[in-house]
Amino acid sequence: MSKKILITRIIPQIAHELLTQAGFEVNVWQGDGPMTQPELIERARQADALLSLGADRLNQNFFDQCGHLDVIAQFAVGYDNIDVAAATQAGIPVSNTPDVLSEATADIAFGLMIAVSRKMFYLHKTIEQGQWKKFEPLKNLGIELTGKTLGIFGMGRIGMVMAQRCQGAYKMKVIYHNRSRNEEAEKLYGARYVSFEELLKESDVLSVHSVLSAETRGIFNKASFSKMKKSSIFINTSRGGVHKEDDLIDALQTKAIWGAGLDVTNPEPMQPDNPLLSMPSVAVLPHIGSATEEARYGMARLAAQNIIEFYANGKMLTCVNPKVLSISKEK
Ligand code: DGY
Question: Could you tell me the strand order of the sheet in which 233-236 lies?
Answer without folding.
Answer: 192-193, 173-177, 149-153, 205-208, 233-236, 259-262, 282-284
